[in-house]
Each structure stands twice: as structure tokens, then as C-alpha cells.
Amino acid sequence: MMKTFSRRRVLEQAAACAAFGTLAGVARAEESTAATLVTNTQDIPIVDTHQHLWDLAQFKLAWFDPKTPEGKILGHSFTPKEYAEATRGLNVVKAVYMEVDVVPEQQQKEADYVIELCRSGKTPTCAAVVSGRPNSDGFAKWAGQFKGHQYVKGIRQVLHVQETPAGYCLDEKFVKGVDWYRSFFPLAATRERYRKRGHDLQAGEATPYYMFHPAVPARVAETLPDVRLIALLRDPVERAYSHYQMMSRTGREKLDFEEALAAEPERLAGVEESLMSETEQLLPSGHRAHHQHRHRAYFSRGLYADQLERWLAHFDREQLLVIDTEDLLARPQETYAETLGFLGLREWQLDDFPEHNKKPYSAIDADVRARLQERYAEPNARLLELLGRDFEWAFEPIEAPRIVEQRGIASPADGRDDGGHPGGGLPLRLRPVLGSHLLGDT
């Protein structure tokens, strides 16, 4: 018989599990040891990271309908008083409030309510994620009030209510609004304060997918025409195989490497046209059209000449610094100094250059490597002509070791994975990739 779990029951068993020191504690808490384990958990401090509170006398909830089964169950207020009663004896020492999707006109009221709750110190609530509508007019200004806030640590919107129209999360203002983008960077007033102290404040960001997305160069040029761009390139054969290994290891690729390469043309068919259109299409799976383009373009993302030509159609060559990953690994200090000079930053010495996100995997099959090198020969030749410089991997095949290290990167976003990008695995401080652009005053 399936058992019903309340929030109290979950917290009890989480504490029991911690006391027992193993995940087996959850299973055993269902058996005869449950009472013993739970009685020993009162001294274990618990932080509830997803605390829902609502007072129906003060707030209207966008999802609440008293006529529905859910509405009948949840049709009462759940205030700090009810929360304290529900968690009595569990030693919940801190709680993070998670927004409950109040109606848009009450978003500020919700934020004020929970801020005061945190400030009072009378309840475990010490931080909050409040409601917000990213595609609403004035969102960036509204959200700006919480930048660096002592209590408000995030803004969230629930997208599964009936009032949310289909394709809402793909809306131009929701996803790509310039004001929203700029809200992540220092304000003009902040830069001015630095200038008055004799300093300058420069900010940038690294998003590997910018390099491959066909619509991004024009968008960046329109928004940031004076940007400084850095592309970090890696042997495209190694990049493709590393990318595949990351996707396979995380369960997002079911084909073997050769099958995935063979499937790539069909997977990417028509996607670039969709990405260039005003309204992005959805795949039959429900994913956005760029899903295959972003995650399974193993071979295509190594066609560097095609990608850089798109960027150089919108920017002067002097705005682009191209770094060979092999140079960075072999001569990190010199490459780092070159990067600082390109960005107009003062000289700085780092004590070390640790690598990150290295994962071992078996070597690529020699025949597959040879075929890929042959396929990349012409694109690599065009890359050398385009940039007027050499890359060791563009001339001579590099014999693969029996075990190689994957140089992958996990980015924020977007919560997202870019394991096969050209600069993966490099020090976090050295990950400027094409699309790392410095903003002017915002």
C-alpha cells in the first residue's frame, strides 16, 4: 500500500537519514528502527530550503481555485503560525521562503511581507525567492531593487498555470530582453563611483553557445557594437569526441559516437533557419528548436571558420582575440597576459592555473579520428586563411593517448551544460570565449 508523505514526514526522515549516516536510513525509518532514529534527530539542525507560506486574507494566488480538488485541500491559510505547528519538534532552524505565485499586482506586497518576516527574527525564515514576471514591462527596474539584497535571493515565476499562454517562456521579452540582460551587470552609477576613485570597472560574460548560434552575432553587434570578443579554439576532433562523451555520460545521448555523427545532419535539418526566424519553433519532443543544435552538433561546432566568418561580418578583426587551447595549457601565464592586454586591463599575476571538470574516458577509435581529420581538413584550411595564423592540430594528426581527459564545462544559467565547447576544462578564470563581451554603461 502506497503511503502518503506530508512535509513533516519528509523532514523527519531526512533528519533520520542524517542521523543514521546513510541513505539506508530512509528505508529503515519505514521499519522498526524508525522510532529510534527519529527520537535522536532533535539536535540535528534542519534548513528548510523550500518554505511555502500564504495568507488568503492578504494575498490572491494565481493558481488557487476553491472549486478544484486542490483548492479544497489547500483552501486555507498557511501562515508562520501553521508552519511552526507543522514543524514542531523537528529543529528547523532556518527556512528559505519560496514564492507561491501571487497575482501580479501583489508581487511587491509579497516581497515586503517576506522581507519583514525575515527582518523580525521571530520565525526561522531568513531568506526568500519572490514572485516575478520577467516578460512584464519594467521588470528589470523592479528586479533591480533586490540586487545584493540581504533577504531576497531570487525571483521565480511559475509557468504551469492556465493563464500562461503557450510559448510564453519563448517570448522575446522573457528570454532575450536587453534590459533583463543588462540587469545582471554593474549599473552606470556603480562604474562612476569606481571612476571617481581612479579605477575603471569592466564586466563581461562567457556563453560558449554564442559562438555557434547563427543569430547571435547580429544581436550582439546591435546591442554592443564596441564589444571585445575572445574565441578559445580546440582541436575540433578532440572537441567533438569530448562533447559526445559528456552527453553520453549524462544520459542525453543514446547512440554510439559514429551513429551520432551520422545522425547529425538529420538532427540539425532546418534548425538554423528556425533560429534565424522571429518565432522559434518547437520540436515534436516539446524541446525548443535549438535543442539538437546546441547539444548534439558534435561535428558542426568544430567548423570554426564558418562561425568566425559570421562574427567578422559584424565586427572588426581587431575586436576579436583567438586563443589556441594548446597555447593556454602550455603557456598559461603568457596567454593570460595577452588576454589582459587585449581587454585593456592592468597586468596581474596568478599563482596557479588549475584545470576543472576533467573526466576520464577511453580514447577515440583511430579510424574514426582519421576520418574526422579528413573531414575537417578543408574547414581548417579556411580557418588558417581567415585568421592568418597556424594551429598545430590543423596540420598534423595528433595521436590519441589510451586515456584522455575530458575538458568540459558546466555553465547558469541557463543551468546548462557545454561540455564539448572549445575551451572546456580550462581554469574558470581563463574561460573567455567568443561572446565574452564587455558592457558599457547600463
Key features?
3 domains, Rossmann fold, four-stranded parallel β-sheet, two-stranded parallel sheet, disordered N terminus, TIM Barrel, 39% helix, 442 residues, alpha/beta, globular, single chain
Q: SSE layout and pairings?
A:
Blueprint: H1 7-20, H2 24-29, H3 34-39, E1 46-51, H4 69-74, H5 80-86, E2 92-98, H6 107-120, E3 125-131, H7 139-144, E4 152-156, H8 172-176, H9 178-182, H10 188-196, H11 216-223, E5 229-233, H12 236-249, H13 257-268, H14 271-276, H15 290-295, H16 304-312, E6 320-324, H17 325-330, H18 332-343, E7 358-362, H19 366-387, E8 403-407
Parallel strand pairs: 1-2, 2-3, 3-4, 5-6
Antiparallel strand pairs: 7-8
Helix pairs in contact: 16-19
**Beta-strand content bin:** 5-15%
Q: Count of helices?
A: 19
Largest sheet: 4 strands, parallel
Determine the fraction of residues in helical runs and give it as a percent range: 25-40%
Q: Specify the structural class.
A: alpha/beta
Oligomeric composition of the shown chains: single chain
Fourth-level CATH superfamily of the largest domain: P-loop containing nucleotide triphosphate hydrolases
> What name does CATH use for the topology of the largest domain?
Rossmann fold
Distance between the termini: 59 Å
* Order of the strands making up the biggest sheet: 1-2-3-4
Count of structural domains: 3
Q: Any guess at the CATH architecture of the largest domain?
A: 3-Layer(aba) Sandwich
* Overall shape: globular
Radius of gyration: 26 Å
Output the helix-strand order. Answer: HHHEHHEHEHEHHHHEHHHHHEHHEHE
Averaged pLDDT: 78
CATH class of the largest domain: Alpha Beta
Number of strands: 8
